[in-house]
Amino acid sequence: MESKFLPHIAYDSVIFGFSGEALKILIMEYHNTGMFALPGGFVYQDEDLNTAVKRGLRERTGLDDIYLEQFYTFGDLARFQPEVMERILRANEQDFAGWEWLMDRFISVSYYALINYRDVVPQPDALSDSCDWYPVKELPELILDHSKIVAKALETLRLNLDRKLIGGNLLPEQFTMQELQTVYEAILDTKLHRSAFQRKLLASDQLIRHEKRFTGKAHKAPYLYSFKR
Amino acid sequence: MESKFLPHIAYDSVIFGFSGEALKILIMEYHNTGMFALPGGFVYQDEDLNTAVKRGLRERTGLDDIYLEQFYTFGDLARFQPEVMERILRANEQDFAGWEWLMDRFISVSYYALINYRDVVPQPDALSDSCDWYPVKELPELILDHSKIVAKALETLRLNLDRKLIGGNLLPEQFTMQELQTVYEAILDTKLHRSAFQRKLLASDQLIRHEKRFTGKAHKAPYLYSFKR
DNA sequence: TATTATTGTAACATTGTGCTACAATAATAA
DNA sequence: TTATTATTGTAGCACAATGTTACAATAATA
User: Fold this and answer.
1) Which of A6, A16, A81, B216 has its C-alpha lying 20 to 30 A from B23's C-alpha?
2) How far, in Å, is the CA of B23 from the C1' of nucleotide C29?
């Protein structure tokens, strides 16, 4: 049986979310294997690559209109390990017929996505027990070169953070300056100076200031902000 | 006949050189078609993607150890135009047997390279009349989405230029500050301020100053510089 | 009404960059 | 030998961006 997918071509997505404390990504666990991997998928013969990735993200998160960026394509021979896919299929008691194409060599076009953690109920796929959030600092061991993919995603995200002011994609529509700063600190893994951060973001002319948020705490209430579109 | 290459996967390379006047890239012209394209190629079944690209660069330029960076993978359906490859093969009076795989859909992993213009005698491949330098501002019409690929390469190069100080790869081992500035101006397509440029590059602590270069002109002789390794 | 914690912003120091000016100098002309 | 010319290396000043400290404003509580 022929696959409807383009042979040899896969994508993997590093889906970032922010819990309020830590920067996390979505990781899938395959049935009965203890094997962890990035959510990924394949491209239909009659489908754009980017469309395929958006389709996969929708299936995994339920969200459309996600901030998404392609960052690297991994094509080393070392990522060709048919025994890994074989073990996953066996553990799923899958009939191998029709799945031979999965045992081929693949290159992985990799993307990272930034989403609002609270908007998502992660959905495992047919081969997986779970699709769950893991702090980037406490990831389980991942199959193939997926750890390298995560590292490169994080590196690219950090480089792009200032240039594109994309941190807000990890927060709800409205947020306080303190919350935004915490996101930046989690991504960059450094402390930032409150005053300079606030001044820089306000000077960037990309924020809209809304009403204050009263939390009931015994101190001045912070303004809420949102990004201009 | 089976191809020894990974089906559906191609690479294209945007090879930048600097003539002393203008920023140029290598473009191939296919026999008897008036069709122009980026140098590219395919990946052997038992070869790393990056290795394949380096192999292709060596064939086209004769150089090893080239500054090379992957910047994007193009996977739109719109780049699937079998009639283009068909026309190229026909013009070469090729027997189609054994070349059917070329008429398939491909995604293109794209790289840019920076090389020393003077070191290279560009080599056409079997299907091409010529492999020649064209100023990026005066490119012929290119097949498929190759113009888009060039545009994205240039955009990425500009973004990376400051961060990585890679401009020197377009020059001989030793160069004057004036030559380096001209390269930067050609890439960025803007005039830079001599004084600020010199101060910034010297402060970057990445240059070694050598002896002066005496050109016989009636003015102060400039120092030669090279980049630290 | 005083206290507490946090926020918004001013103020100053430091660094980076745009811009101008000028002395140094390699060859040529007088 | 000396003046001239074009270009180079660098200093100096203005202005912008950022690091750092300080402080007034304020929402709730004691």
Assistant:
1) B216
2) 38
